[in-house]
Amino acid sequence: MFDMRHALLTPARLAAELTRSLYTNPLNPLSYTPGARTVAAGAEVFERATRKFGKPDFNLGYTKIDGRRVDIAQKALLEKPFCNLLHFRRKIKRDDPKVLIVAPMSGHYATLLRGTVKALLPHHDVYITDWIDARQVPVSAGKFDLDNYIAYVREFLSMLGPDTHLIAVCQPAVPVYAAVALMEEENDPNRPLSMTLMGGPVDARISKTQVTRLAEDRPLSWFEKNVVTDVPFYYPGGFRKVYPGFVQLSGFMSMNLDRHVGSSMQFFKHLVQGAGQDAEHHRNFYDEYLAVMDITAEFYLQTVETVFQKFSLPTGKMVWKDPFTGQAHRVNPAAITRTAILTVEGELDDISAHGQTTAAHTISVNLPADKQYHHFQEGAGHYGIFNGSRWKSQIMPRVRHFIRQMDDPSRSPIPAHDLELIPDLAAPQYDPKVHGIEVVLARKAQKAPLTPAEKEKSGFHNAEEDA
Description:
By secondary structure, the protein is of the alpha/beta class. The protein has helices at residues 2-8, 10-24, 34-49, 114-120, 146-160, 173-185, 210-217, 220-226, 245-255, 257-273, 276-289, 297-309, 359-363, 389-406, 416-419, 437-445, 452-458, and strands spanning 62-65, 68-79, 83-90, 98-102, 125-131, 164-169, 194-198, 229-230, 241-243, 295-296, 319-321, 328-330, 340-346, 372-377. It folds into 2 domains: 2-52 and 245-289, no CATH class; 62-219 and 295-463, Alpha/Beta hydrolase fold, catalytic domain (Rossmann fold, 3-Layer(aba) Sandwich). It contains 17 helices and 14 strands.
């Protein structure tokens, strides 16, 4: 039905595109009149509202290091049925920390993290998981669930080696944490030096959101019946059961519908006024935001059940089934003793709200306090903690310094001018506004329980058992 609607609107969309071209053509005298700009603006808004947005490119051809332009070669280092491991190879000899960014598999492509990658490239050797649209993967490739996701992360880490740092943005927080815990328990030599968890639902019981309430209020059978469907036969992944990307997108947009409608009205206004830069900013953002991919049904349903209904990781009940051997392994958070953790949360995040990500510190009962850090970003929403001005000016420097601090000391030292940006690198610093997370960690370091007042202040009172 979604595809049929798109097909039926094709003639109107083509007519709108033709109208826009006609009334914006500099050779057309009418294009300089307010009326023509209004018609062209309306045509473009309609065309974009009815278009299917394909997978964008990273378009990261170069970066700047010490004021010099350095070319970037994007290469698929490893190709798997459901994911490619991409490497952004800088054409310069530098011994910078190796960073694997685990992109979310939640409807959007990995290119949503273009800004994340771009900001890290001058200082790090960057890799990223490029998840593949499930409707493009033939049924013969087999299934892909949360267990496979964890197996992929472990395989990528093993390939990159023991001096790797992990960054998990949003959804991957739980599977990445699970992968590290499993590798730590097995004393795997390729366990990462650090992991940065950004706006992820480590413990979805804390600070309820529309996302968590939806999962809690309905049984798993409801999701299977209402949001899972078969891929149409004319796609390469025909007959595969998926959670369609456009359903996920409609859910995200409905949470802030007034904001998106207002943004479209502003876009129309900018087009009429000839504010080209503002209009281009809107295009760039929504070209990315509206490009969505399908997710395998088994991955989606297992994630809903494990993360949002049973809260398996923070309650110590998460089990990983090895896709290759079929053996079941309990994920033990207490096994993490060497991989340092940095959590990042945004003040205005309505997807993974305050406390959900910092719960990673609470369950890492055996990780020394000097390997646990937290960054709370005022004024940042979910998207803003990994993209945009606050990410580039305030969050990224903190992440960069954390990685440098936890990296192999044989590498080149942190430049003096970088140290001046964050002079407190030598010791963990916690923002007291963030649910008192520093109280939790301080008590943990003292091996003392929280008092009732501290539990209330810490924000972990919704997960009292773990606190």
